[in-house]
Every structure is written in C-alpha cells, then in structure tokens.
Description:
The chain has an 8-stranded parallel β-barrel, surrounded by 9 helices. It has 13 helices and 8 strands. It has helices at about 5-15, 30-35, 45-55, 65-75, 95-105, 135-150, 160-165, 170-180, 195-205, 225-230, 240-255, 270-280, 280-295, and strands spanning about 20-25, 40-45, 80-85, 110-115, 155-160, 185-190, 210-215, 230-235. α5 (about 95-105) packs parallel to α6 and α6 runs parallel beside α8 (about 170-180). Magnesium ion binds near residues 46, 47, 48, 58 and 85.
Amino acid sequence: LKNIMTKSEVLRKDLESKPILKVGGAFDAMSAKLVEINGFDAIWAGSFAISATHALPDASILTMTEFLNVASNMEESCNIPIIADCDTGFGGLSNVSHMVKKYEKAGIAAVCIEDKTFPKQNSLLENSKQELLPEKEFVAKIIAAQEAKENPNFMLIARTEALISGMGMKEAIKRANAYERAGADAILIHSKQDSPNEIFEFADTWGGTLPLVVVPTSFPIVKTDELISHKIKMIIYANQTLRVTHAIISKLLKQLKNSTSINDISIDMSSMQEIFQLQETYNIKKQEEKIEKDLKEMGYVN
Ligand code: SPV
Ligand code: MG
C-alpha cells in the first residue's frame, strides 16, 4: 500500500523545507492547471479573481457554495495544493465551521480567512471602508475553524487587514500574536502600500513563529530574495493571471471586430493541440486502446 500524502501535508512539508513558496492565482480549473504546469508550489483560489470571472464585485456577493465549486474544480484537475481564499468565512462562527468541513472534504489543502466584517470589500479598492472585526470575534472564528477540521494537517491561514484598514502596525502585530495563540497555522499580512517597507517592518518586528504570507499586488517591485531575507515564507501572485486574461481577451476582441479574417490577428493563440493536451484529450485514445487489449485478452474478438 502506497502512503499517499494529503495535499495539506505537502503544503506543510514545503513550508518547512523550502525558503519560500510561490503560489499562483487562478480562477478556474484551466488557469489552476496552468499554474501547476508552470511549476508553482500551490494555487490561490482568490475571491477577487473568481468574483471577476462571474463579472461580480469582490464584495461577499458569491456564496460559499459558488466559491467552493470553483476551488473543487481546481482540486480535481490539479496535483498541487489549493489554497482557498474564504474571505470573512462567509458569516459567523457556524458558517466558518461549516466552511472548514466542506473545504476539507473537497480536498482543499488550506483556507484563508480575514479579520474584516461581513460583507467585505476588496482590500485594494480605492476609497473603500475597511472595517475590522473586534480581535476577540476573529479569534473565535479561528477557534471555530480549528475545532471543525478532522485532518490535523488541514491549514488555516489567518489574514489580518489591520494595515489595510489604517489601524497601524501595533494593531497588526497585536492581532497576529492573538491569531497565533488562537491556533492559526500561518499569518497573511496584507498591505496596500506601493512599497514593501510596511510588510518588512511587520516581519522584522513580529516575534511570532508562524509562517508569514504576503500578497505583493500593490508593491510589485519587491524581489523574492528580499522577502526571503525578511523571513516571509509564501508569496501569493493573487490576480496577475486574471488581469492578463482580461487584457488579452479585450485586445483580441478589438482586433477581431475590426478584421476581415481571423488571420489578421496579431496575438499569439495557443494551438488546438495545446488545448487538447491541457484537457488530456489524448488520454481518451490511450484508454480505449488499453480496454481493447483487455477485452482481447478476455477472449472477445472484434
Ligand atoms: C484576492 O486575491 O482575492 C485577495 C487579495 O484576497 S486582494 O485582492 O488584495 O484582497
Ligand atoms: Mg480575496
């Protein structure tokens, strides 16, 4: 009997053994698979990108079931761990508990919840009100999540929005400490500054032991080596796949609308064969041949 590691174990092992984990954002099974094919450690099923593919705001509009369906599709077609962005946990303590049970059963390796009030707004939305839950209430959510899980390796990433909300460094550190004490498995420290200094300061000042996770959308200049030197263990490229997809489809459609033939298009398109490959279409033929052989061995003649 083979001892197969669960994906949450894989994620934990990687966090211990690698200097930093690169996590690629995805919004459906195809983008998730491309993240995997390109050698990333894990996949981020982000609320912003998934909401965008439904042409809806990232504002607690889609339901847990809808987010879970997308994450499950990714999980079923990929071999690397899925980290699911679960916003505020979709409500109160019993919603968090239910969410953890459902995501764990679906094979998701980790969930991330943030300490904002429901409904949330995207952290990078200009002029948005970013209201935090009282620390105690978010600590209660962490406890609820940890009590709900059956696989001890299933991971809970606690995300503090203290810097996003303008509550400051002291509050961020206080909350990270509280969330570690409550049993979180990692801390995501989010920032909307255009420089990494804020998260560096956090990483250098915080005395905790949990792995630190960052999402450098607003400070894209930051280098992986710098993150490593500040003891950050995971970088999430949350929305670049979504934004490039949006850009390239828009560009293509503009050209197509103004063209007289498809040949006029100056954008690289993947070949049908490349897509067949991604869909594992060629496996169907192999499978048929295998069954044909089995049937022959069983004495059936065609
Ligand atoms: C996401 O990708 O959904 C995130 C990161 O949570 S952010 O968009 O910066 O809030
Ligand atoms: Mg999100």
